[in-house]
Automatic annotation (TrEMBL):
It comes from the Bacteria. SUPFAM superfamilies: ATPase domain of HSP90 chaperone/DNA topoisomerase II/histidine kinase (SSF55874), Homodimeric domain of signal transducing histidine kinase (SSF47384). Keywords: Kinase, Membrane, Phosphoprotein, Transferase, Transmembrane, Transmembrane helix. Its EC number is 2.7.13.3. It is an enzyme of class 2 (transferase). Pfam families: HATPase_c (PF02518). InterPro entries: HATPase_C_sf (IPR036890), HATPase_dom (IPR003594), His_kinase_dom (IPR005467), HisK_dim/P_sf (IPR036097), Sig_transdc_His_kin-like_C (IPR004358), TCS_sensor_his_kinase (IPR050428). It catalyses: ATP + protein L-histidine = ADP + protein N-phospho-L-histidine. Residues 246-445 form the Histidine kinase domain. It is found in: Membrane. Signal peptide: none annotated. GO terms for molecular function: kinase activity. This is histidine kinase.
Length: 454
């Protein structure tokens, strides 16, 4: 299934927003964690200075911390905050270390320099450790000692986790706002494309001739190309109509000459050759009329409306004056409010062929019914004649197909083409008695747009 351009852009934008915020959240969390670690290192550095500054000799002359750091966690076993001083042969530790010794790496430290380590603790966690090498003054023996202060990273990790948890709801709100903003931007940004579709429909229905030149500069080239295509199409259709009309009119003079020749033959008593010539000329005339109808419909936009009832009455009144029309009864039920999207002359031509054909094949009655079906008008023309075989119904609607030896199906073909030109249909079926032909045309009241003949 192909997604619409609007939906694809919206989904792509939403995915980009979510991905960008996820990356931003990870970056902010890492930045916060680094900040927290720097604060912890600064705190440990102060405590390391206090530990080193408190180093002195006790009453027995041994090195010891004369003033232990004030933080009570140093006296609480396994509290997570520890100090340790390596005197070479003596190891001083905070009470919080209990029986654990910080595994300081054997690295060489310049005097006064601080190294930062991450060491394992006795609980399986990690200790952030600051280590400094200090040369003692002469009063303390002038030896070198390694002093270290360590802090468990559990609190640092928890702070980072809490920060991320607090950040997620705000990121979700921001993501929703950005996605909505993206939808709004797409709605207004793609409106010119929707306007192109609306104007194409307006051109198709005949409300306007071209798309126009008031689109944004990114869309205007498309509108210009569509307008140029319409111009080229109309020019080509116009040339084709003129060629077809010229060809059809070119046949009319020879046909008139043939009809005159047939009349002269008839006057001399040669009725059979005259009838044959008249039959051939009549067939050619029907083909010429058909081509003229097609050339008139080609490329035409239908906007006109025609009321069905007066057109039917006009056609029936004419056919009633013919020998076949006066010999049958007419049962007509056509509401006065039915209108179709078709020119009145085209409607008369389409219905005329159907009604004339029904009068010629009816035994005693022709029935005409019209009704509204959804967004269309259905006009049924039925005779009570013998009908036709099922295998010839489709053949009857083909170009030049014959219903019998005395009549041509060409008129039905013309009616079908007129219906198709406005989006309608023509169907033929055997009824209980005779043949029923149904012409379905767009309902003018439903606002069905006109269409162009391809």
């Amino acid at each position: 299934m192909r997604l619409s351009l609007r939906l694809r852009l919206a989904l792509g934008g939403a995915l980009a927003v979510v991905l960008a915020l996820a990356i931003a959240s990870a970056a902010l969390t890492a930045l916060f964690a680094a900040h927290v670690q720097r604060r912890a290192e600064a705190e440990l550095s102060v405590q390391l200075d206090q530990v080193v500054a408190a180093l002195g000799r006790d009453a027995d002359g041994r090195l010891a911390l004369q003033t232990p750091p004030a933080d009570p966690r140093f006296d609480q076993p396994l509290s997570g905050l520890y100090w340790q001083i390596d005197l070479g042969d003596t190891l001083l530790r905070s009470r919080s270390l209990w029986d654990y010794v910080l595994p300081l790496p054997p690295d060489a430290l310049p005097d006064g320099h601080v190294h930062v380590h991450r060491l394992p603790d006795q609980t399986g966690g990690t200790l952030l450790t600051l280590e400094r090498s200090v040369t003692l003054p002469p009063s303390l023996g002038e030896g070198r000692v390694r002093a270290a202060v360590a802090l468990t990273t559990t609190d640092l990790d928890q702070a980072r986790s809490d920060f991320l948890k607090e950040l997620l709801p705000y990121n979700a709100i921001l993501a929703a706002a950005l996605i909505v903003a993206g939808w709004v931007q797409l709605f207004f940004g793609l409106r010119p494309l929707s306007e192109v579709g609306r104007r194409v429909l307006a051109v198709r229905s005949g409300e306007q001739r071209r798309l126009g030149s008031d689109f944004p500069k990114e869309v205007q080239p498309l509108a210009n190309e569509v307008d140029a295509l319409i111009d080229a199409r109309e020019a080509e259709l116009d040339r084709a109509r003129h060629r077809a009309a010229d060809l059809a009119h070119g046949f009319k003079t020879p046909l008139q000459a043939l009809m005159g020749e047939a009349d002269r033959l008839r006057q001399t008593g040669q009725t059979e050759p005259a009838a044959a010539i008249e039959e051939i000329a009549e067939a050619m005339r029907r083909h010429v009329d058909r081509e003229l109808t097609r050339s008139r419909l080609a490329g035409r936009v239908v906007k006109d409306k025609a009321t069905v009832a007066p057109v039917v009455q006009q056609i029936v009144s004419v056919i009633r004056r013919t020998p076949t029309g006066s010999a049958v009864e007419w049962d007509i039920v056509v509401p006065d409010d039915l209108q179709v999207t078709l020119d009145a002359s085209d409607l008369a031509e389409a219905l005329g062929a159907l009604i004339e054909n029904a009068s010629r094949h009816a035994t005693s009655q022709v029935t005409i019914r019209a009704s509204r079906r959804d967004a269309a008008i259905a006009i049924d023309v039925q005779d009570d004649g013998p009908g036709i075989s099922a295998d010839r119904i489709e053949h009857l609607q083909k170009r030049g197909a014959r219903a019998d030896e005395s009549g041509h199906g060409l008129g039905l073909s013309i009616s079908a083409e007129i219906a198709q030109a406005v989006g309608g249909t023509l169907s033929i079926a055997n009824a209980e008695t005779g043949l029923r032909v149904t012409l379905i045309l767009p309902d003018a009241r439903a606002g069905v747009p006109g269409t162009r003949r391809p």
